Amino acid sequence: MDETPEKDEIRGTAQGTAPVPLSVLDLVTVGSGRTATDALRTSVEMARLAESRGFHRYWVAEHHSMPGVASSSPAVILAHLAAHTDRIRLGSGGVMLPNHAPLVIAEQFGTLEAMAPGRIDLGLGRAPGTDGATAAALRRTERLGEGADDFPEQLAELVRFLDDDFPDGHPYARIHAVPGPVQATSPGGVQSPHRPPVWLLGSSGFSARLAGTLGLPFAFAHHFSAQNTIPALDLYRASFRPSAVLDAPYALIGVAALAADEEKEARRQVLATALNMVRLRTGRPGLVPTPEEAEAYEFSPMEREFIGSWNANVVHGTADEVRAGLDDLQKRTGADELMITGNAHSGAVRLRSYELIADAYGLPGKKDVQA
């Protein structure tokens, strides 16, 4: 199918028997007894495995003040991953735009684009990626609602910096994000033809409608807002207006999925990550516990109810069971791409999960994770 370069940088190609392209979302999870260094080494191994097995893209999510999530600086992590990979698309899933000045994001992702031309995605969210107090510390303001309300204006400003096309008379007309297009207009300048495509991320209808109106690709956080998935995707598709970026909607969904060699082991692993979520939701964030710690934990009736609800949206089991669950989810949602986040206490468990999923779909390539 003939497509413009811009569309090629968004749309993926399904590999093996997968119904749609498969990608990876990494939270750089830190398990108890492990360090952030251990988690980041696992991320390098996972990115190399994903690349070798035909996953389409590898995104890192911005979170703050969570001991078990070491992905507070996506741009820094992506630079590290770019140095250890050659082909796979790398991006943010996402950068929380209200936490940052648009010019800073344009500079960071312009730099990443210069490091890995044609491989960088810029996914943007409007949530803080943390609690209110931490968001206030990040933004140096207590008026947090303003950042979310101003998201469309912040987005427009960021895109202007990325394209270097503020109109004459604009206060920022003489300000340029470097690396960026201004280098091509300087004497002797040559600039890369690539510019990181912008994605909007969301867990409700706001970004779905905005992405559709602007003709941008959309990523929905099904892994923690499953009840809103189909309404948000319907809204995105109904709101979609063709643009220079896309002539038709393109939506991926983030999916929590973990495969293990035995179903019992998969259940043990997801129980541990569910306990981590219980602690996070009750104001006790920490490192991801071991399965043994989760099995010994005395859950209250309310906690057990939460875990049942949470794990109902985690596709887990053997490789065949996970494949069937992912296939069913794709059919129900019509998602154009599935982005799998496989969280567990152990990096080895996470790596094994992605390998099993790749094998279940007959994805190309062999395991190659020698860092």
Structural account:
This protein is α/β, with parallel strands linked by helices and 371 residues long. The chain is 43% helix and 13% strand. It is built from 15 helices and 9 strands. It has helices spanning 5-8, 36-52, 74-82, 102-115, 132-139, 144-149, 151-163, 182-185, 205-214, 229-239, 263-281, 291-296, 301-311, 319-333, 347-360; strands spanning 22-26, 57-60, 89-96, 120-125, 198-202, 218-220, 251-259, 315-317, 337-341. It has an 8-stranded parallel β-barrel, surrounded by 8 helices. Helix 2 (36-52) runs parallel beside helix 15 (347-360) and helix 14 (319-333) packs across helix 15. The protein is globular and about 65 Å long.
Sheet with the most strands: spatial strand order = 1-2-3-4-5-6-7-9
**Share of helical residues:** 40-55%
Number of helices: 15
Estimate the mean pLDDT confidence. 91
Shape: globular
The parts where pLDDT drops under 50 for at least 5 residues are 1-7
The end-to-end span amounts to: 35 Å
What integer value in Å does the Rg equal? 20 Å
Order of helices and strands: HEHEHEHEHHHHEHEHEHHHEHEH
**How many β strands by DSSP?**
9
Beta-strand content estimate: 5-15%
Sheet bearing the most strands, described? 8 strands, parallel, barrel
Output the keywords.
371 residues; eight-stranded parallel β-barrel
List the helices and strands and how they pair.
Elements: H1 5-8, E1 22-26, H2 36-52, E2 57-60, H3 74-82, E3 89-96, H4 102-115, E4 120-125, H5 132-139, H6 144-149, H7 151-163, H8 182-185, E5 198-202, H9 205-214, E6 218-220, H10 229-239, E7 251-259, H11 263-281, H12 291-296, H13 301-311, E8 315-317, H14 319-333, E9 337-341, H15 347-360
Parallel strand pairs: 1-2, 1-9, 2-3, 3-4, 4-5, 5-6, 6-7, 7-8, 7-9
